[in-house]
Amino acid sequence: MTEAPLELAIERHIAAPPGIVWQVMTERLAEWWCPKPWRSEIIEQDWRPGGRNAVMMYGPNGEESGGEGVFLEIVPERLIVFTDAFKSGWIPQGPFMVGFFELTPDGDGTHYRAGARHWSEAAFNQHKDMGFEAGWTAVAGQLAELAETVSRSRS
């Protein structure tokens, strides 16, 4: 995906091949998706275009933050695109963003790029002020740690 207006994104190198990063991303989402000490609970992940994407996040002081949407595009070991503009069954709901995760081979590892594109400047600023960069950088680090551990165990 190319950079777009009203896009927030982070990038990093993960010292594991795209296949392992993909496996960890899709099979162990609850272990990496929200910054610790928060934790995620997977409600449903139907990994296909139009499939339901529902996660609940819990904070250390009893906070709860739920998110539900649908997957728009899935290209195994390469790309996940999702949105909160719809619930499963293409039921519209108040849109905030289109999110994406891109994996590109990079030497023996993976170039990881994750981001969110927003419908309005207000939503862009809200997400930025919520701590997008720190939060998505933290989860990228958690993903990298898990993927790199799996990769080392298979070497």
Summarize the structure.
With 155 residues, this protein is an alpha+beta fold.
Strand-helix topology:
Layout lengths: L6 E8 L3 H10 L1 H4 L6 E7 L6 E7 L5 E12 L3 E5 L2 E2 L3 E2 L4 E10 L2 E10 L2 H9 L2 H23 L1
Antiparallel strand pairs: 1-9, 2-3, 3-4, 4-5, 5-8, 6-7, 8-9
Helix pairs in contact: 1-4
What would your notes on this structure say?
It is built from four helices and nine strands; from the N terminus they run βααββββββββαα. With 155 residues, it is an alpha+beta fold. The strands form two sheets. The protein has a seven-stranded antiparallel sheet. A two-stranded antiparallel sheet has the order 6-7. α1 packs across α4 (132-154).
Comma- or semicolon-separated keywords:
155 residues; alpha+beta; two-stranded antiparallel sheet; 4 helices; 9 strands; globular
The geometry reads as globular
State the total count of DSSP E strands. Answer: 9
Beta-strand residue percentage: 35-45%
Multimeric status of the protein: single chain
Cα-based radius of gyration, to the nearest Å? 15 Å
